[in-house]
Amino acid sequence: MVHKWWRVVLVYLAGVLAGSLCSSVTDPDVNLAGGSGGVYAILTAHIATILMNWREMSFPCIQLFIYLTVIVGDLAMSVYQRCWLRRSNGVGYVAHLAGALAGVLVGIWVLKNFRPTKKETYLWWVAVFTFSVLMGAMVVLNFVYDTWLRK
């Protein structure tokens, strides 16, 4: 395994945390069960690996195209069902989206980068900052809107 087990666990847990926090702020009426945010984080972390190790990978364009096709197709279908068809089947689609975003961001700074370049180091810092700000904002919003969420 190229990435150690603990790196994958960190990506998974970041996806679960991001999915839970974001869902509680944006979609408080949905109950969450399972770890779908973490699963989406692991799926999209592959995109981060491809981007950070572009020159070291064989056929990175094909790999990226396949991952993006599957992930974007699945996310688009989820958003379509929730927003346009108005199917409120209790599924926390926001948790899926937040987990997917967390997977890319955390994957950039947790998963193995074989030969870091200056651009990738800059991207690493942007990912750390973005994830930290977004998670901090979700924690603050959970406290600020606590009374609003309970209604």
From TrEMBL:
GO terms for molecular function: serine-type endopeptidase activity. GO terms for cellular component: membrane. It is a multi-pass membrane protein. The keyword Transmembrane helix applies. Its main location: membrane. It is found in: Membrane. The chain crosses the membrane at residues 32-52, 64-81, 93-111, 123-145. Keywords: Membrane, Signal, Transmembrane, Transmembrane helix. The keyword Transmembrane helix applies. Gene3D superfamilies: Rhomboid-like. Residues 2-112 form the Peptidase S54 rhomboid domain. Residues 1-18 form the signal peptide. Belongs to the peptidase S54 family. This is Peptidase S54 rhomboid domain-containing protein. It comes from Callosobruchus maculatus. The lineage of its organism: Eukaryota, Metazoa, Ecdysozoa, Arthropoda, Hexapoda.
